[in-house]
Amino acid sequence: xxxxxxxxxxxxxxxxxxxxxxxxxxxxxxxxxxxxxxxxxxxxxxxxxxxxxxxxxxxxxxxxxxxxxxxxxxxxxxxxxxxxxxxxxxxxxxxxxxxxxxxxxxxxxxxxxxxxxxxxxxxxxxxxxxxxxxxxxxxxxxxxxxxxxxxxxxxxxxxxxxxxxxxxxxxxxxxxxxxxxxxxxxxxxxxxxxxxxxxxxxxxxxxxxxxxxxxxxxxxxxxxxxxxxxxxxxxxxxxxxxxxxxxxxxxxxxxxxxxxxxxxxxxxxxxxxxxxxxxxxxxxxxxxxxxxxxxxxxxxxxxxxxxxxxxxxxxxxxxxxxxxxx
Amino acid sequence: xxxxxxxxxxxxxxxxxxxxxxxxxxxxxxxxxxxxxxxxxxxxxxxxxxxxxxxxxxxxxxxxxxxxxxxxxxxxxxxxxxxxxxxxxxxxxxxxxxxxxxxxxxxxxxxxxxxxxxxxxxxxxxxxxxxxxxxxxxxxxxxxxxxxxxxxxxxxxxxxxxxxxxxxxxxxxxxxxxxxxxxxxxxxxxxxxxxxxxxxxxxxxxxxxxxxxxxxxxxxxxxxxxx
Lengths: 326, 227
Fold this sequence. Notes:
- The complex is a heterodimer.
- By secondary structure, chain A is of the alpha/beta class.
- Chain A has helices at 7-23, 112-126, 140-151, 169-182, 187-195, 204-217, 237-246, 276-283, 301-304, 306-322; strands spanning 44-47, 50-57, 64-68, 90-94, 133-137, 158-162, 263-268, 289-294.
- Chain B has a ten-stranded antiparallel barrel with strand order 1-2-3-4-5-6-7-9-10-11.
């Protein structure tokens, strides 16, 4: 004879089952490396109301080289290949707000304006006196640098650019249209779409993890070396999602013609999203550009061809930092 | 790894034991035939293909005068097909309410989806409930549907590249209630002769975070053979 199921017992059994199930599950945070808020041992700096993951090397007081990574949403791990510059220069490499191992932030502060203010705050906090400042940038980092110096072209004494997507909204739209148009149906794209239902990206950790998977499976439009990919810690998914949506109309070229120093500019042979010709057009915003075509590499050229490019960068840094009275 | 295989096997058995799907109502509930084999191809979380089999069940006292059917189906993305990326779903569809040729149906599915990327492998167990309302004549029909899919658990196994190059301390394991999404769409179909039925479903998928999928548009063409 069947016994009547007591609702209270059934509820208790269900609760127990859920508790046992829950206790056997991993935390989302086990998917990705901890941020500076979760691991105090990570080098960090509190600036402009946030906590940034910062690697600082070289003698304080030497010319300051501030590295701006790509994305928005990347991190500075691949820049560690440039640590050799620390013998002569004061290097600041940091993960931008909401990216890499820096603190995760909500939508409201994930804007270009805040990122520019973060950069200004970092320079103010690390510059000892009047030593020259050079921005060493990759991709999106170059656009961020333009937004920074367009406010005051004399803020820095040099910029290294490596395939920025653009400095105006129209240039950005061209870039993204080119990127979208170049996407082809590959197994990587297949994997990204097919995997989208298995995790909802409502937590930063989970969202960052999924975004990294998308980046690593999204094909090689940038001409990157997929067999030896540049290293990264953790993608800032919220930053890369919200910043473009909140960017509005912009033109960071208004004052670029007043830049008095030469800009060192790298463009790669293999990048199919932004071609060498398009990079040439972007470079026209600056009065004096030293353009180098990096053969045999794609968008990840600063990492893949670091040894080849270092002498060029050292020569440039020596010239632009010596040009400023100490 | 062993736990993952055991759970996956259990899920497969459970899904095979009683199942259905979410691309519009099963035609066996409205036609004269009692069985249906179908091929679904199109765009939904990638360029996908599904093979399904559905069958009308005898009326049960449990559900009164309402018709009931089950379906099982297997699917995978078609760009580069492999069983590492595949899914098995099954469920029950109930004819809930009707006036004339207007019908309201509810479909409850259970599914398991396997995913392989360069960053991770995953297996997800999910349930989905779909309400569909529409007009169904003898030789065709149309309607709209609204569904909610709830992930119950996803097992993540990090790939070698991720563990070696990105995060050596990453933990493999199960994540509870990992996902949720809304699915909504319009469907229409037309009988071609007595045994062939062709249908098209257009829709949108939204993650529970309020953000659409990378490709939120759903466009699936169905060819069914009734017998």
